[in-house]
Amino acid sequence: MCSIDVTPRVWERLLAVRQGLACACCGRWSAGERAALALYGPLARRDLGPVTVGQIGQSLDGRVATVTGDARDVSGPDGLAHLHRIRALVDGVVIGVRTALHDTPRLTVRLCPGQNPARIVIDPQGRLPDDAPVLTDDGARRIVVQAVEKPRPAGVTVIRLRPRDGQLDPAEILAALHAEGLTSLLVEGGSITIARFLEAGLLTRLQVAIAPLLIGGGPQGLTLPSPTARLAEAIRPDMRVFSLGSDVVFDCGLTPEAMSATEPLHLQSERLSRA
């Protein structure tokens, strides 16, 4: 397991990678800095096509909240910083309406330098109120994906899709967001929304950040709508493990593109820098 060290120099490089101005493989770095570049570099890159990453923060026993619904302190301080770094590296953050209503998230970047991503709520029946924090006008794009004819405040983009069995198709959601110019996306919550994108085969990566606490009950981090009956058919991702400090993150590559993103962009330059 690699321990990451996100120094200011590392973060400056990652933001440059996001802008297409640098790579994450060249240069002289400490072991911790290189681990940080290995973890976040694949999320910052824009040269390998669209990327959709799911992120779950959970306890050692796989819970994302208590039986009363308290989810605020599941992730430790380094787990929260990790989430904000991902937000800063993607074009947009996707959540389901239940998460927007229950957790009232802001989905902004506050624990590291970086721009706020577009905020996207999947709200088939138009339940999200117009004064929800996620729709606050702070300069970031705000998008609601819905199935009903419901007007939204000025500045909020509405994507209307046809429902299937009362739900919106994750593939159609992704296609619509790509058409809006948002090709690097974080599916942040809730667990049901992440599971639907995962089961549809639409996640490039899945990151599971585990905090050192035992809750004993409450909702689980990930339950697929159609769970595997045989272990031989289970999803077996390409996995890397990193220590964030207070939390440990399992970075799971789910597609060939995810594998390619971990390979150095300039392999020859990397070898020369180590010589």
Unreliable segments of 5+ consecutive residues = 268-272
Structural class: alpha/beta
Spatial order of the strands in the main sheet? 1-9-10-8-2-7-3-4-5-6
End-to-end C-alpha gap: 25 Å
- What is the share of helical residues? 25-40%
Shape: globular
Radius of gyration: 19 Å
In this structure, how is the largest beta sheet organized? 10 strands, mixed
Question: What count of helical segments does DSSP give?
Answer: 8
Mean pLDDT: 93
How much of the sequence lies in strands comes to 15-25%
Number of strands: 10
The helix-strand sequence is: EHHEHEHEEEHEHEEEHH
Task: Describe the fold and architecture.
The protein has a ten-stranded mixed beta sheet with strand order 1-9-10-8-2-7-3-4-5-6, sandwiched between helices. 42% of the residues are buried. It starts with a strand and ends with a helix. The protein has helices at 8-18, 31-44, 77-89, 97-103, 170-179, 191-199, 256-261, 267-274; strands at residues 2-3, 51-59, 92-96, 118-122, 142-146, 156-160, 184-189, 205-211, 238-243, 248-253. The protein contains eight helices and ten strands. The chain is globular and about 55 Å long. The model is unreliable at 268-272 (pLDDT under 50).
Précis, in short:
The chain has eight helices and ten strands. By secondary structure, it is an alpha/beta fold.
Descriptive key words:
8 helices, alpha/beta, ten-stranded mixed beta sheet, 28% helix, 275 residues
